[in-house]
Amino acid sequence: MFVGKGMIWYNGEKTVRPHRAGQGKDGAAMTHKTLYTVVVADDEDELREAVCTMIPWQDYGFCLVGSAGNGLDALQLVEQHEPDLLLTDIRMPFISGIELARQVREVRPATNIAFLSGYDDFEYAKQAIQYNIISYMLKPLTMEGLGAELRIIRQKIDAQFAQFRQTAPRTGGPDLRAAMLMPLVLDDYAEPEGEAQAEAYARQCGLLRDLEERPRYTVMVSILLSGEGANCTAPPFVESVDRLASKYLRSVSFFAAGKVISVLLGNPSDFEEYLHILADEIPQMAERVLGKRCRIGVSGEVRTIGGLHDGYRQAMEALRQGDRTEGGAQFISDLAPAGKGGSLLCRRALEALDQHYMDTGLSLVSLSGMLDVSPNHLSACIKKYTGETFINILIRKRMEAARELVASSQLKIQEVSQRCGYTDQHYFSYCFKKYCGESPNAMRRRLGLEKGSEGG
User: Fold this and answer.
1) Beta strand 216-225 with 259-266: parallel, antiparallel or unpaired?
2) Confidence (pTM)
3) 2-164 has which fold?
4) Which residues contact 66 (CB under 8 A, 6 or more apart)?
5) Which of 376, 273, 384 is nearest to 329 (CA)?
6) Where are the alpha helices (DSSP H) in 205-296?
7) CATH, domain range 392-447
8) Which is it for strands 112-117 and 85-89: parallel, antiparallel or unpaired?
9) Strand 328-331 relative to strand 293-298, pairing
10) Whole-number Å distance between alpha carbons of 428 and 406
11) Mean pLDDT lowest among 7-11, 87-91, 384-388
12) CA dist 232 to 223, 290, 314, Å?
């Protein structure tokens, strides 16, 4: 069977039928292993149905947990199921595959993404390499070819998990960068005359590249918790943290006093874009791979090597805040002024959402910037106090406003769409029908309000 954009071709008259889990040459080998969860997204119903029903997922080591016909539904499924893999077409309505990958990385960086793309999209797809893309598959593709690629993806995720759960200590000689940073981080070393000497040593051991480099630093402290909430962090966790950190920022990590301490280097824009993603991915991987909660404390930006001890104290202060039995990241910037925690922050977020839901660019990241907290902290507060995700709350707010405008105003549907934060009228109409059970025009016809709906 061949799968291509807009086409499904069978090999002669022979229909490929799905195997039952555990059957086939791969089944016996896979049944004893963890099944990786997968969500499939493609806007062509027939093609998507074929992939979902005719691939023997369990034989390849996967469990299909959901499918979506557009990027919006796919993103909601990722938030709901937290899959290990998202298999998505790159060209989809409402949210493109690349934009979907970017948004998935914001909410679930531990999810790997595989693209199905046409030849003309391949170079375009490769631009998304930063978004945890594990595979690119060119259409048309046989079912056998897709199965072979799923085996490769399975091996790659196996390797990711094995690296994260490794129990062997770091091999080889000591890391000179870690040896240089450890006393600066753990001890109070703030003498001004020592800064030049510390920078010179940092260049010698490769931490700084040249005389001109002046990066900012952030200190991150990570610990693992047992089922009883006790610290159970072991030295090999250094490698797990450092490997993930190096995906986003320059990093050096070491183990001290039951904690993994990481010094992260970058410029302010690097930290703004990547730090909250890293601080989400480590706890997500710890829970998924190790079955343990991970708590993280993150300092503010430090301008000099001599200030790393202050950064360490900030990270430790952040780590000690909140419920110490819960996993997740805590930023020092989330703690200081009143109104940055608990139900009060959630209430402030909902009030800000009421004021800005019509902004097309509103996102969890932009809302957290308005409230001067990290996206991680804001997301956790919203989930804890409302039981819902930011995306679902935003869609509901927009749809409630849209229903009121559709039912009580003479605005055109396109104008209603724009007033509710949607630039794409088709996207708006899809969301409206999904939420309200009927299209905007159907609602107006039912209510006898057809006038003014032109352009919808």
Assistant:
1) antiparallel
2) 0.83
3) Rossmann fold (3.40.50)
4) 39, 40, 77, 80, 81, 83
5) 376
6) 237-245, 268-285
7) 1.10.10.60
8) parallel
9) parallel
10) 12
11) 7-11
12) 7, 12, 22
